[in-house]
Amino acid sequence: VQLQASGGGLVQAGGSLRLSCVASGNIFSINDMGWHRQAPGKQRVLVASITKGGTISYADSVKGRFTISRDNAKKSVYLQMNSVSPEDTAVYYCNADIITFSRTSGWQTSAYWGQGTQVTVSS
Predict the structure, then answer these.
(1) Per-block average pLDDT, block size 10, for the chain (123 residues)?
(2) Which residues are registered as beta bridge partners of 121?
């Protein structure tokens, strides 16, 4: 199972960016999906999460500016980032709780992470 994130880049303050993350591999089902970010010298923190049923939560710092969404058929999660500021500069990681099945390991629920995509906001 792999998560592939994309969409990062350089954007001016006040601009917008859309991150995408797609899961692939031997996937039976995906539960919660989300985005975290890690700024230089800081810990990785949750930005937004969305359940399989569509329940959403956001960090206070991004409420009203960022929107998380998912497409269960495409095994994808997205993060629309509007009105960005230099404080949003970080590496953004997608994550998902994924259920798999194999004859050797049976049913398993594991947390998977994407490789990270850099978002840089210039002032």
Answers:
(1) 97 98 96 97 97 97 98 97 98 97 92 97 96
(2) 11
